[in-house]
Amino acid sequence: MSEVKRILVLGGGFAGIECVRKLESYFRHDDNAQITLVSEDNFFLFTPMLPQVASGNVETRHIVIPIRTLLKRTKFYEAEVKSIDPYGKTVILSGTSEKRGVSLHYDYLVLALGSQTNFFGMDNLEKLAYTMKTLNDAVILRNRVIDMLEQADNETDPILKKSLLTFVIVGGGFAGIETAGELNDLLLDARKYYSNIQRNDIRVTVLEALPSILPGFNEKLAKFAQEKLGEHGIEVRVSTKLASFSGSEVVIEDVPSATKEAVNQHPLGAILTRTLIWTAGVTPADIIKKSVFKTNRGGIAINEFLQSVDFAEVFAIGDCCYLVDPNTNRPLPPTAQSAEAEAEVAAQNLYALVRGGQKRKFMYVPKGQLAIIGKRSAIASLFGFHLHGFIAWWLWKTIYLSKIPRLDKKVRIFIDWTIDMFFDRDIARLKTMKPKPLEEFKELDEVDDVW
Ligand SMILES: Cc1cc2nc3c(=O)[nH]c(=O)nc-3n(C[C@H](O)[C@H](O)[C@H](O)COP(=O)(O)OP(=O)(O)OC[C@H]3O[C@@H](n4cnc5c(N)ncnc54)[C@H](O)[C@@H]3O)c2cc1C
User: Fold this and answer.
1) pLDDT value at position 444?
2) Phi and psi at residue 415, in whole multiples of 5°?
3) What pLDDT sits at residue 437?
4) Would you state the pLDDT for residue 328?
5) Given this model, what pLDDT does residue 209 score?
6) CA dist list (Å): 99 to 67, 68, 80, 115, 262
7) What is the C-alpha separation between 359 and 351, in angstroms, rounded?
8) C-alpha 179 chain-centroid distance
C-alpha cells in the first residue's frame, strides 16, 4: 500500500479551485492522497462580473459560489494564512476568539493566493481611493455612487454638485474599462429619479498611462472600445497619469513618450471629484512577498513545470506567481484564464511527482479575450476573429455565463440580466460595510491542531 501524501492548496480563487478540482479527478481512486484547501473566504468570487455588481446589474450573492459546494472530497478550512514555512513544510492559519488557530503540515503545497490592489506606494491613495477587486469593493462603490446622486440632487453649490457627480477611474485595463462602462450605465439609468441632475452634470473619466486602453487586445478593437466609450459620454485620457489625489481633487500629468524629454513633464491640470476608483494594477498578495520563497516582481519565481525554483514540492499558480511567456518574452498578465491553465498543469505535475510519471511543461495558449464596455456593447478577440458591438456583448454574456460554476448561479444571473432589460436599476443604498481590521489574533501556541 502506498504512503499517505498530504497535498495542501492555499487560495480559493480561479487557480486554487481549478487545481483542487483537477486533483480530485486525478486522485479519484487514491484514498492515500489527502487534499486540503484553505481560503480566507468560504466562497469563490467570479471577478469578471464584479463591475456588474457595482452597477446593480447582477445581484451581489449571484457571483459568489460557496467553496464547499464545489468540492467532493477535499477538506476545507475557511481561514487566513498567516505564515508559510517551506523548510518545516508547515502552514499556519490565524485564529480569533471564535476560530481556532491551526498548523497544517504538508508533503506538497500549491500556492494560489492571488493578488491585491497595487497602489505603488501612494499611501494617500490607499486611504482615499475606491477599488474594484473584492465583493466588498463592488458593494461599497455602488453605495458610493448612489450616495453621490442623493447628495448632488439637493446640492445648491454648482461647483460642488459637479464634483459630486464626477467619477475618475484610473487604469484602462479590463477592470477599469468594464467598471467605467457599468458605472456610466448605472448613473444614466438612475438619473431619471433625480430631477435636479441633468445628463451633462455627470462626468465619468478614465485615465490611462499607456498610449492606448485595454493592453493585450488587438489595436483596432482597443480603438473601437475607446471611440464607443466616448460616444457613451465617457472621457478616456490616454498617456495621462494621476499625480495626486487629495480627496476632492485629482491632479493629472502627461506621460512623456519615449521621444519626449522626461524633464518636460508638467501637471496637465486638475479634476474636481470626490470619487476616485483605482484599478491601475495588482501585485501578488503580501503573504507571498513576506515569505522566504524566491520572488520576482513580488511573484513566486517558478520553473517551466510551475514549481518554485527553490522548493520542488511547492507549486505556484495564478496571480501570485511570476512566469515569463516564452512566446512573448513578457510576464504572463494576471488573468483568470492563465490562472486556470496553470492550475491544470500544476495538478497534472503534482500527480506525476506523487505517483510517478512525466511532468508537463507549461505553455500558455490564450483562448481569446472579451471585455464589455457598457450600453450593450463589447469587444472580443476569439480564435483569430475580432468582433465588436452587440454581437460581442452577446458573446461575452454567453461565454461568461457558461463559465460560472453551478447551474443555480447561472439561472440567477440570467434572470438578473433579463430583469435589467425590462426594469429600472434598483437605487436603494445599502449601508456601507467597511472592512474592519481583525481585533484579536490568537497565535498558534494556544491551540495546535496538527495533522
Ligand atoms: C474587476 C475585475 C475583472 C476581471 N475580469 C477578468 C476577465 O474578464 N478575464 C480574466 O481572465 N481575468 C479577469 N480578471 C482577473 C482575474 O480575476 C484574476 O487574474 C484571477 O482572479 C486570478 O486568480 P487567482 O486564483 O490567482 O487569484 P484570486 O482569484 O484572487 O484568488 C486568490 C484567493 O486566495 C485567497 N487568499 C488571499 N490571501 C489569503 C490568505 N492570506 N489566506 C487565505 N486565503 C487567502 C483569496 O481569498 C482568494 O480566494 C478580472 C479581475 C478583476 C478585479
Assistant:
1) 46
2) -65, -40
3) 53
4) 85
5) 94
6) 18, 18, 11, 25, 53
7) 9
8) 12
How far apart are alpha carbons 372 and 286 in whole angstroms?
A: 30
pLDDT of residue 1: 58
Tell me if 181 sits within 8 A of 132, measured CB to CB.
no
Span 236-247, average pLDDT: 95
Where are the domains positioned within the chain?
5-117+283-366+440-446, 123-278
Instruction: Please state the rounded mean pLDDT for residues 362-390.
Output: 91
Half-sphere exposure of residue 312: CA atoms within 13 angstroms, side-chain side: 5
C-alpha cell at 444: 498558534
How far away, in angstroms, is 293 Cα from ligand 1 center?
21
In sequence order, the β-bridge partners of residue 382 are 368, 385
Ligand 1 atom at minimum distance from 320 CA: 26
pLDDT for the residue numbered 257: 66
- Nearest-CA residue for ligand 1 atom 1 is 175
- Report the DSSP pairing between strands 166-170 and 295-296: unpaired
- DSSP letters, 44-110, are EE-GGGHHHHHTTSS-GGGGEEEGGGG-SS-EEEE--EEEEETTTTEEEE-B-SSS--EEEE-SEEE
Mean pLDDT over the full length of the chain: 91
pLDDT number for residue 265: 54
For 391-400, the pLDDT digits (tens) are: 999 999 999 9
**Structure confidence at residue 448 (pLDDT):** 44
**Would you call 121 exposed, middle or buried from its count of C-beta atoms within 10 A (0-12, 13-18, 19+)?**
exposed
**pLDDT value of residue 225:** 93
> If you take atom 21 of ligand 1, which residue's CA is the nearest one?
336
Tell me if the domain spanning 123-278 has CATH number 3.40.50.1820: no
Q: How confident is the model over 242-252, as pLDDT tens digits?
A: 999 999 999 99
What is d(CA 360, CA 83) in angstroms, rounded to the nearest whole number?
Answer: 29
CATH of domain 5-117+283-366+440-446: 3.50.50.100
The confidence score (pLDDT) of residue 141 equals 96
Cell of 170: 484610473
Total Cβ atoms within 10 A of residue 435: 9
Strand pairing partners for 250?
245, 271
Ligand 1 proximal residues by C-beta, below 6 Å: 11-16, 38-41, 47-48, 50-51, 80-81, 112-114, 132-133, 174-175, 285, 287, 318-320, 334-337, 339
d(CA 78, CA 24): 19
The residue whose CA is least distant from atom 47 of ligand 1 is 40
Mean pLDDT of all residues in 366-376: 90
